[in-house]
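Whether sequence alone determines local backbone shape is best considered at the level of individual chains. For completeness, the protein is quoted in full, as a sequence line and a line of structure tokens:
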Amino acid sequence: MLGDFLITVVWLFFWTMALMVFISVFSDIFRREDLTGGVKAVWIFVVFILPFLGCLIYMIVRPKVTAQDVRNIAQAEAAAKAASGVSTADELTKLTQLRDAGVITVPQYDALKAKLLADAGAASAAATAAAPAS
């Protein structure tokens, strides 16, 4: 009884993993921009006709890093750099300019300033806690 259950669980695990590999390969084929329509059709045909062997061949033949991957990595790094380039002092300066221009009221300025300083304090506390002790 227990042996049948364990065999069933292992069997379901491997079928689930095979299905996930199949879905990943299938979606990767459609997502890639360096493959033409005909090449994509051939890969889809191979993956459907010989699912296990087709997926294995595709994973072996696929380049580790495509031009599309490099472009996505560069965009992510640029976004991270742009996001980290804004400091709390810059944001306070912008808030002060908005207050001086009359775009926001003094109570709004005080509330936004308090929120900004609280967020900056929480971020610095989290960074201090995450830093390794020497």
In short: The mean pLDDT is 86. The chain is about 85% helix and 0% strand. The CA atoms of residues 47 and 56 lie 9 Å apart.
